[in-house]
Design a protein that fits this description.
The complex is a heterodimer of chains A (about 325) and B (about 350). Chain A is built from 10 helices and 14 strands. Chain A is an alpha/beta fold. Helix content of chain B is about 35%, strand content about 25%. Chain B is built from 11 helices and 12 strands. In chain B, a hairpin with a 4-residue loop joins β1 and β2. The C terminus of chain B is likely disordered. Classes of the chains: A alpha/beta (about 325), B alpha/beta (about 350).
Chain lengths: ~325, ~350
């Protein structure tokens, strides 16, 4: 990217493997990306494309075994998160990097009040006493738009609706003023009208607090509305990466193009028949030796089965991992 | 299809499905969850009626009640000219082949210990006198029809992907040559690139076998693609029912309008320019709905009358039904309607 700001998070060649009885599953293959202060990076992909595993790997949240983070670097605050001790990593997680999980039903502890759960990171990471933590917790609940915050601190998770629980999760993630917030499908389990409320809240919070956000989703519609840059993942690899207007206006990878054609919309032309992507996502057993999308691709040729395509720079901060050049309609030279 | 006037295959009148709530030491009945509370609609022969709404609005309960998977609280359901609303389950059994269901979760709705062949064959065992060989041929034909390789007939459901499992569920529903199929969120559990495959299959089968669908979904963009007409439910009631084009171009009910505006569109320039209607608050509990209109607690165009009187569900334009006081002939309603329409226009710009 041309503008000078140093990235807050810089991931290079991350590689994660799961050891299973059926062999080694290569879930994340050489994923690289960076996140600048204050920006929102959208990560799109289907289930099994490696988007959640990537984020879990860089925070050391995957149980090992079966998971094995094999290589790469994760630069954050001048350190490599993959090479620091567990204690330091724990102080980063929930402190400087906040995390919101997909399912607000299962990620809150049902036997503690939400107040206790919001205060936990405040007391552990910020060393606040009980009175300070209570005051901050109330402030946080008000920030995420929960009415009657003081009384609600004493309520248990089951007394909140799905949308409200997700607001509580956001409050916990924001508790220690994180520089980076990682949100893993935060609105997937919610209804559209509640999703709209949460998206609106996120926009508001970003302009207030100015943190950088990684937003994982499979919904291109959500991404179009909130992201600055988008990274498309398929088969454990980054297949395309671009600023949001570039990605939707000028998609380069055949998978992105097919995906955009597949989804029906509520405005615009109604297609008589949906365009489909034939076949199934790849299994990813064994290290990648070819393009993961080649079996479902309509422009694949011999080379796609022989090498893993690197990410070709196509200008405007846009790159695509494809041997086929969508602009010229011909294979790339090297 | 449009040569003759379409006649309804399924006709539902004032359907109610209330579930009792028991509480206290003696498990006394203390109230009821009004999951479906007075719903009326027709499904025309050969059409797809989309039934949309948020979770908890009663759309799945409604679909199941129409097939009499529940003993309904009250109402009339006529399918293919026969009234089944009050029919006892024993008499319903011979009717079952005409009406089938495709379930949401293909993982949970297939028995993991039965082979694909056994799963698809089960309805044939129950309802027909075909010989074993004929049944096998029929199963193979059905597997072809839904795009499953017949070589996999002896495999178990776990060996298939989500999309393929949904195909097994569809083959099972088709086994008895039904006329009417209730599809309860058939694509909600599938990945985006697989959803289109299943929707195209459903459309092909509809054409091939002349099927009529009740397509239940929360995905408004997919419903716009597949449905002929769309019914929108909120808190146990249908608030609007209209032909697809009209509903998406100019929603009449304020809830439909808010729901459509909340759908995120995969177009960043559109997302930046369109004005979203963000509904405040959440859906009230169906065990204790508000007085008057069910939507009055969240409605942006709410009037005094809405909090007192429940609006009638009626035809306000040819073929378009809605339950909203904005379409009354009073001065207040006319002014409210003007405001409602002007925001419609802004959105189109």
């Amino acid at each position: 990217m041309p503008d000078g700001a140093l990235p807050v998070l810089d991931v290079r060649d991350l590689k994660t493997v799961f050891k299973t009885r059926a062999g080694e599953v290569h879930a994340v293959n050489d994923v690289s990306f960076s996140l600048k202060p204050g920006e929102l990076l959208g990560v799109v992909g289907e289930s099994g494309s490696g988007k959640s595993v990537t984020m879990m790997s860089l925070l050391g949240l995957l149980p090992s075994p079966p998971a094995d983070v094999r290589g790469g670097t994760v630069g954050f605050g001048g350190k490599d998160l993959l090479r620091i001790d567990a204690e330091t990593l724990r102080s980063v997680r929930g402190g400087k990097i906040g995390f919101i999980f997909q399912d607000p039903m299962t990620s809150l502890n049902p036997v503690f009040t939400v107040g206790v759960q919001i205060m936990e990171p405040l007391r552990k990471h910020m060393g606040m006493n009980k009175r300070q933590a209570t005051a901050r917790a109330q402030e946080l609940l008000e920030l995420v738009g929960i009415p009657d915050a003081k009384r609600r601190l004493l309520d248990y998770p089951h007394q909140f609706s799905g949308g409200m629980r997700q607001r509580v999760m956001i409050a916990i993630a924001l508790a220690c003023d994180p520089q980076v917030l990682i949100a893993d499908e935060p609105t997937t389990a919610l209804d559209v009208t509640i999703q709209a409320q949460i998206l609106e809240l996120m926009k508001e919070l970003r302009s207030k607090l100015g943190m950088a956000v990684i937003w994982i989703t499979h919904d291109l519609g959500v991404i179009a509305g909130i992201a600055d840059r988008v990274m498309v993942m398929y088969g454990g690899q980054v297949v395309e990466h671009a600023p949001v207007h570039e990605l939707f206006g000028n998609p380069q990878h055949p998978y992105t193009r097919a995906l955009l054609k597949t989804i029906p919309t509520i405005h615009g032309e109604r297609a008589a028949r949906l365009t489909i992507i034939e076949g199934q996502p790849p299994l990813m057993v064994g290290p990648p030796t070819a393009c993961p999308f080649r079996d479902r691709c309509d422009v694949a040729f011999a080379r796609c089965a022989q090498e893993v395509p690197p990410r070709y720079d196509v200008g405007h901060g846009h790159d695509a991992a494809c041997f086929f050049d969508a602009n010229t309609g011909a294979p790339r030279d090297v | 299809m449009f040569d003759e006037a379409p006649k309804p295959l399924v006709s539902v009148r004032d359907l109610k499905m209330h579930f009792p709530i028991y509480a206290g030491l003696f498990r006394r009945r203390v109230g009821e969850v009004k999951a479906v509370d007075g719903v009326s609609f027709d499904v025309m022969e050969g059409e797809t009626l989309g039934l949309v709404g948020e979770s908890g609005c009663g759309k799945s309960t409604c679909g199941r009640a129409v097939l009499r998977l529940y003993d309904i609280t009250s109402g009339e359901i006529s399918i293919d000219g026969r009234e089944i609303g009050a029919m006892p389950q024993g008499q319903l059994r011979p009717m079952r082949p005409t009406m089938q269901m495709v379930f949401q979760d293909p993982q949970a709705s297939l028995n993991p210990r039965m082979t694909v062949e056994a799963i698809i064959k089960e309805p044939l065992d129950e309802h027909t006198d075909l010989s074993e060989a004929d049944k096998r041929t029929k199963v193979a034909e059905l597997m072809d029809a839904v795009g499953l390789n017949r070589k996999f007939a002896k495999r178990y459901p776990h060996a298939f992907s989500g999309g393929q499992r949904q195909r097994i569920g569809i083959a099972r529903a088709l086994a008895l040559n039904p006329k009417f199929i209730v599809c309860d969120e058939p694509i909600a559990a599938l990945d985006v690139s697989i959803q289109a495959q299943v929707v195209n299959l459903l459309e092909d089968l509809q054409e091939q076998f002349g099927l009529t669908y009740l397509f239940i979904s929360h995905d408004l963009s997919m419903v716009r693609h597949i449905a002929t007409r769309v019914a929108v439910m909120y808190l146990g009631k249908v608030v609007e029912l209209a032909p697809r084009e009209g509903l998406y171009a100019e929603p009449l009910h304020p809830y439909t309008k808010a729901l459509l505006s909340a759908v995120p569109e995969p177009d960043p320039s559109l997302a930046a320019t369109t004005e979203r209607i963000i509904l405040q608050g959440e859906v009230p509990s169906p065990s204790n709905p508000p007085d008057g209109c069910n939507f009055c607690t969240r409605c942006p165009s709410v009037m005094d009358i809405c909090r007192r009187v429940e609006p009638d569900y009626r035809e306000v334009q040819p073929g378009r039904f809605t339950a909203c006081h904005l379409y009354n002939d009073t001065a207040e309603a006319t002014a409210g309607l003007e405001a409602h329409k002007s925001t419609n226009k802004e959105k189109i710009k």
